């Protein structure tokens, strides 16, 4: 498997993660692979505001549990826009609602190679 350089070049990727260090590390890694990172943001409200403002988003990485809220309204908005996304979470698959059971999931801590593979589909 390649290191992912160039695979995400030019892709605009929304990052929704409420833990600052994880968000910063993920954003830095994605930028290092040539992606343009939208965010990161740590709440449903901020993510939905970015979706309203940003015309082109190619993919998204969503943490499911954002402090006291779940990211599912953002997932629904992305589905309506037909934007692919990945859940980056510590949750087991059975916890995720049925309507999102086919959404790819990366367990935390996120393996960057696995995330690259999922975002490059």
Automatic annotation (TrEMBL):
InterPro entries: CheY-like_superfamily, Sig_transdc_resp-reg_receiver. Keywords: Phosphoprotein. Residues 12-121 form the Response regulatory domain. This is Response regulator. PROSITE patterns: RESPONSE_REGULATORY (PS50110). SUPFAM superfamilies: CheY-like. The modification 4-aspartylphosphate is found at residue 63. The keyword DNA-binding does not apply. Signal peptide: none annotated. SMART domains: REC. It comes from the Bacteria.
